[in-house]
Amino acid sequence: MADTYDLIVLGSGPGGYVAAIRASQLGLKCAIVERERLGGICLNWGCIPTKALLRSSEIYHYMAHAADYGLTATPRFDLGKIVQRSRKVADQLNMGVKGLMKKHKVTVYEGDGALAGKGKLSVKQGDKTVELQAKNIIVATGARARELPFAKADGKRIWTYRHAMVPDEMPKKLLVIGSGAIGVEFASFYNDLGAEVTIVEMLDRVLPVEDAEVSDFVAKALKKQGMTIHTGTGVQSLTATAKGVTAEIKGKDGKVDKAEFSHAIVAIGIVPNVEDIGLDKAGVRQAKNGHIEIDGYCRTSAGGIYAIGDVCGAPWLAHKAMHEAVIAAETIAGKAGVHPIAPGSVPGCTYARPQVASVGLTEAKAKESGRAVKVGKFPFIGNGKAIALGEAEGFTKTIFDAETGELLGAHMVGPEVTELIQGFTIARQLETTEAELMATIFPHPTLSETMHESVLSAYGGALHI
Question: Which of 71, 82, 175, 266 is 20 to 30 A distant from 445 in Cα terms?
Answer without folding.
Answer: 71
